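FAQ

Q: What does a record look like?
A: Structure on top, sequence underneath. For example:
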């Protein structure tokens, strides 16, 4: 009994508060997948969470997709600390190379935090080596955003987490690092450097 009381006092002193609340196990994600060359929507692409393959959707007639959020009411120890939870998503379509994007939400996930994304995909994409999935996609994405003039601070914040995708191909990794460094040196569209 003393141990339980001691633990309870310790948790309260650490800022932990016991509560019954909703926790979001899956945050909602929706968006559009489009052909980077012509802007046309891509129908029939599969959007899947890289680490939770049961989170999946297929793009519709105008390239749109939606993955519903899921929450549950339960007892939780609420803590004052928080962190950014980044999820990696994969887009696959027979006519395009695989693409990737990320979503980031504040955790612990006590509220709904929907993500809305627009993801370009590239036809005739070079095949990635097994040890660097999405290596060529990342490079083409930086090039695409630069050409389109949309490589602003917000786009850079979306690119940076893609660095977390495993790549053990030294040459592709060197090219990716060089592309990121170059992109960070470009004048930002919103006036920030």
């Amino acid at each position: 009994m003393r141990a339980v009381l001691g633990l309870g006092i310790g948790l309260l002193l650490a800022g932990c508060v016991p509560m019954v609340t909703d926790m979001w196990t899956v945050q909602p994600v929706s968006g559009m997948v489009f052909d980077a060359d012509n802007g046309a929507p891509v129908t029939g692409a599969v959007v899947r969470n890289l680490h939770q393959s049961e989170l999946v959707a297929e793009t519709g007639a105008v390239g749109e997709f939606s993955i519903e959020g899921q929450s549950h009411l339960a007892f939780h120890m609420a803590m004052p600390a928080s962190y950014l939870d980044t999820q990696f998503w994969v887009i696959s379509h027979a006519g395009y190379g695989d693409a990737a994007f990320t979503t980031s939400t504040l955790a612990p996930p006590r509220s709904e935090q929907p993500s809305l994304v627009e993801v370009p995909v590239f036809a005739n994409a070079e095949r990635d080596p097994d040890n660097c999935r999405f290596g060529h996609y990342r490079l083409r994405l930086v090039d695409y955003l630069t050409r389109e003039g949309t490589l602003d601070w917000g786009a850079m914040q979306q690119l940076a987490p893609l660095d977390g995708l495993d790549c053990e191909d030294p040459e592709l990794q060197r090219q990716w690092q060089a592309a990121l460094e170059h992109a960070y040196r470009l004048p930002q569209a919103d006036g920030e450097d």
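Q: Is there anything notable about this one?
A: The chain has two domains: 16-124, 126-193.
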